[in-house]
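Handout, section 3.2

Students often ask what a structure token actually looks like in practice. Rather than define it abstractly, here is a full record for MinD/ParA family protein. The first block is the sequence as you would receive it.
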Amino acid sequence: MDQAEQLRNIIKAGAIGHNKPLARVITVTSGKGGVGKSSVAINLAIQFRKLGQRVVILDADFGLANIEIMFGAVPKYNLSDLIYKGKTIRDIITWGPMEVGFISGGSGITGLSNLNKDYLTYIINNLSELDAIADIIIVDTAAGISDTVLEFLVASEEIVLITTTEPTSIADSYSLLKALNRHPKFSKEKTLVKIIANKVNAVKEGDALFEKLNAVVGSYLKIPITYLGGIPRDSQLPKAVMYQMPVSLKSPAAKSVAAFERITVSIMEPETDQIVPKRGVAAFFSRILSGKIV
Ligand SMILES: Nc1ncnc2c1ncn2[C@@H]1O[C@H](COP(=O)(O)OP(=O)(O)OP(=O)(O)O)[C@@H](O)[C@H]1O
């Protein structure tokens, strides 16, 4: 059996399910920095935990340590230690508040093309254990359009795009979707793209933002997008960051927290007209780590 076949078997084994459904991989991204992507990732994670889901956040914003700062947890190892130093998936997960798991991306996954296929298969096999550890994996990407971000997005079954009402943020969100649409590995049919409007001053503002974005995305890119809702501008959110705590735990009565709750419930609702293409962790990482194998 060659390596490609071995890898396909790992993915197939996951897909058949070892008595355990595959983890749902949700990638949180934004067209520009500072719109609240990491805040959303962390607070959705806490809310998913409150609904009984086991959650692991993968910080794929390589080089920046936003999530770990907001999380107040310093990871001992990171993804690079798994890839290059033989650490296992369980070694590299740091457990934070409410037992949300956290994996730091470390310095990234560059140079992977230099690894041999046997080794890549080993890494993906190791990472695929996450399917048994978590129900939901939240991937927090870097902001903006880069090859690495696009690799993560095309590997995702579900993309949550954070945007604000600033015209630059809307334009950058459109540009990100346009770049994604051009990517040879992107499949409109197999990816759900969901929008969150952050830092809105009123519900209507978020609704209008989505309508505007949906109109251009629908006409020019023909990517179906759905709206998860708005998160109000809330001074409790930056305050909680100062305490290195998610606002959902620091100030549960804050107005942004009610929005996080609503959005999480809506993500958990069964999709009516769209099928969530759960592919699991092995498929996700194998797409990122090497289009060369499968
Ligand atoms: N709904 C909100 N109301 C008020 N402030 C917010 C809100 N969401 C995020 N912020 C604040 O905006 C700033 C940027 O948030 P965050 O770091 O989560 O953004 P980001 O998009 O992940 O940034 P980066 O691109 O740098 O990783 C932080 O100070 C955060 O507290």
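Discussion prompt for tutorial groups: The chain has a mean pLDDT of 86. How would you have guessed this from the sequence alone?
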